[in-house]
Amino acid sequence: MSRTVRMSRARRTRTRTGVWAAVAALAVTFTAGCTEDGGAPAEGPDTTYRPGTLRVLASSELSDMKPVLDAAAQATGVTVRPTWAGTLDAVEQVASGKADGKYDAIWLSSNDYLRLRPESAGRISSETPVMTSPVAIGVKPEKVRQLGWRPEAVTWSQLHKAVADGKLTYGMTDPERSNSGFSALISVASGLSGAQSALTEADVAKATPQLKEFFAGQKLTSGSSGWLASAYKRRGTVDALVNYESVLMSTGLTVIRPKDGVVTADYPFTLLTSAPQEARESGRALTEYLRGPEAQKAITEKTFRRPVVTSVRPAAGLATDQRRELPFPGSRSVADGLLDAYENKLRRPSRTVYVLDTSGSMEGDRLAGLKAALVELTGEFRDREEVTLMPFGSQVKRQLTHTLDPADPDAGREAIRRDAEQLSAEGNTAIFSSLRDAYAYLGRGPSGDTFTSVVLMTDGENTSGASAEDFEAYYKGLPAEQRHTPVFPIFFGDSDRGELNRIAELTGGRLFDAEKGSLDGAFEEIRGYQ
């Protein structure tokens, strides 16, 4: 569910080196829209300060807290108005000062990465843990029986061995965009390296061979926890999910918290020093209520997160035995190095086809915007990734494919950039014929060891070639493995939202809205799903 607009490689390099007294009784509402699975808000964030309202930069997974916050209305009168963001994006906004004056607080799953940014220290006035949820692994019950495991006794080493032996496959969110994925990455690295204190570069190097084996078993990726769970239910092709315990509790999987340790999210409500005094008082009133017995009981029963107040028992089904907290990296360089290693060396590479509308209606500003977005996107592409641009009008015009060689990935990025800059607009709009060509292309290449996806960008409705019904019949006739390749359409210009939604639903993808955000933002957000 988290929405993180990931920075381009160049921007990431620059930012990484330089990852509550009661108030008047008012109705509490948890507002400001977020589309299903953490997509772009229906409207831009409202950051105007209003007395009695807290402007909160928050993890979108916290949308499940609405019933608890509704109840808080009767006790505190504090309205929470969230703007959804991913952890690394929110950290960057706080550390850079961009959050000053726009938000009164941040509410993320963890502040661990924020603590690695010394420039953020003076921007935070207080942080109050509200609930906890460890990163765990949910495994199909029949697979647990096949492996002869006792869930309470399983270790990270046992999980690694099962994956390395080809007996266990799993899904996980992208660590660059989702804190559950980032926490999972740290959990695996800490568990397999045997680190006894803050994770170091030496620990990561020691565990790298095992990490490569472990991530070879990752067959499903996602930019959000919600979409990951939905894709798991739709496909049924992996044996397990690595995610927060609170998410796994609703999947029917056997939840395993590795015996040798976990990384736990503590969801600290964090007030910013730039917030008005009245807002800070509202924040203190809200956290005091949320840590009270009534709210803590509601939190654990409604969200399956664990209470931070010892007098309140965790919800039924949550194990009560203790687990060691695995160490977080001791420096930004270690955390960022681990992320870069995952993206470019450890995870399976991607094959992505960008089906790009370059019909006559794209002439002018729309085509210029598309070119600019693609040029910006080149910094996102990973080592070993195969990128295909498939511009279309009345039919597919060209197929432009480049693979980023780890020995010289910038050469591949530059080639993609040149191709993007040479796009031209002409012809009608053959959406479904072009999608069919994209699937045909992917079907001719290796797919078993890659993450495959199709990105569709169009500014209009289908006016040429195959119909929606033709494409549906074609798609349903594909081999099962190919039907697991999702299409991620981008709503843009005069495109038909209903038509694009049907494509996403048919293929198991997600619709991204460039009208409410930006075209380059939509392209970048999709990266978490590739």
Verbal overview:
By secondary structure, the chain is of the alpha/beta class. The protein has 3 domains: 165 residues, 3-Layer(aba) Sandwich (D-Maltodextrin-Binding Protein, domain 2), CATH 3.40.190.10; 132 residues, Periplasmic binding protein-like II (D-Maltodextrin-Binding Protein, domain 2); 181 residues, Rossmann fold (3-Layer(aba) Sandwich). Helix content is 39%, strand content 17%. The chain has 20 helices and 18 strands. Helix 8 packs parallel to helix 13. The longest helix is centred in the middle third of the chain and has 15 residues. The protein is globular. The two termini are 16 Å apart.
Q: What Rg is obtained from the alpha carbons, in whole angstroms? A: 23 Å
* CATH architectural group of the largest domain: 3-Layer(aba) Sandwich
Structural class: alpha/beta
Strand content: 15-25%
Uncertain segments of ≥5 residues (pLDDT<50)? 1-44
CATH topology of the largest domain: Rossmann fold
Indicate the CATH class of the largest domain: Alpha Beta
Quaternary structure state of the chains depicted:
single chain
So how many helices? 20
Number of domains: 3
The total of beta strands comes to: 18
Q: Helix content range of the residues, please?
A: 25-40%
Please, what is the average pLDDT?
A: 89
* N-to-C CA distance: 16 Å
Tell me about the largest β-sheet.
7 strands, mixed
Short description:
With 530 residues, this protein is α/β, with parallel strands linked by helices. The chain has helices at 9-17, 66-76, 87-96, 112-115, 141-147, 156-164, 179-193, 201-215, 225-235, 245-248, 277-290, 293-303, 332-346, 365-377, 409-421, 431-443, 468-476, 480-483, 497-507, 519-526; strands at residues 53-58, 79-84, 105-107, 124-129, 131-139, 170-173, 218-222, 240-244, 254-256, 264-265, 268-272, 306-307, 350-357, 386-392, 400-403, 451-458, 487-491, 512-513.
